[in-house]
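Contributing new records

If you add data, match the layout below exactly. Sequence lines come first and carry their own label; structure lines follow with theirs. Keep one chain per record. Anything else will be rejected by the validation script.
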Amino acid sequence: MDFSLSEEQELLQDTVRSYTANECPPPRVREVFDGESGHDADLWKGLVEMGLAGLAVPEAHGGAGLGLLDSALVCEVLGAGAVPAPFLGHTLAVLALRLGGSAPQQERWLPALASGDRLGTVALGEAGGAWAPEEWTLSLQGERADGAKTRVPAGPEAGLVVVGGAGGALGLVDASAGGLRWSAEDSLDRGRRLYALELEEVPIETLAPGTGARVRDAALVLLAADAFGAGTRLVRMAVDYAQARQQFGQPIAAFQAVKHQLANMALDIDPTRGLFWYAAHAFDHLPEESARAAALAKAHITDRAMQVARDAIEIHGGIGMTWECDAQIWFKRALFDRQWAGTPDTHRARLADLGGW
């Protein structure tokens, strides 16, 4: 059995990698970091023109109709480039509609999401770190929503918000409707800004029951893939710096302790690739394995990526703790992936529950 990527998947990654390397090098990432909104409309437009906005949209609605693994492979590349794009929230909104939307809902929203005419996002988190569908408390009474959500990507830039409600329900909110109040929240990864959302008597259309749990699992897989990309980039950055930094008349990469640390970093992150590949495959093809595989991928990969990020800062020495060092951008990328949608400890506990421990 061949577990490698297909030629089309490799081409997808190569195409996105080439585009982001040319259009979003570290100096441009820094511009977005230092900007007001954290949203680069021109960069997102370019990604939309490549078809990324419609990657998961069914072909009947103008998209590519690809599986979660393809979206995860894009997340890996975006993480490696620390690309400040709203791909995560947009893709999760698409998946919510694809999995739980009625025919009229899909007809209304999916073509606009695929073309980039509308940006989608998801409002899943609530105060106190409540990310799981069974923890959501926002009221979805009839056709109206009341309550508050936190840590919402893209925020006021979005035209469609998929909101998590009490009982694990999901609902669609047209952002042009009245009753939405956005406020910026602190986010270490300034390339992916987060917002608090308050809803007061906002019109909402519910999706099919059970969709909330599926979208949560998809989020875990995409975050794991993004963290893998960030972790592998940090290893490369640490190696490059160690080969260039001179001490006692030779590169610090020549020192045995540094060699060991670099090797350990690579061994920490590289073998985890199969976890998000399998979790993405299970999401589409092995529903009985999907929840467990997603939780495992999120818990382990984001944990390992965070350790690699700490080690990369250490390799860079004193400069690694400064704003001028690019390593801090990827450190914050890994930290975002670790925290959003629940910490590794949260998902390890869930793994134990799923296993009947």
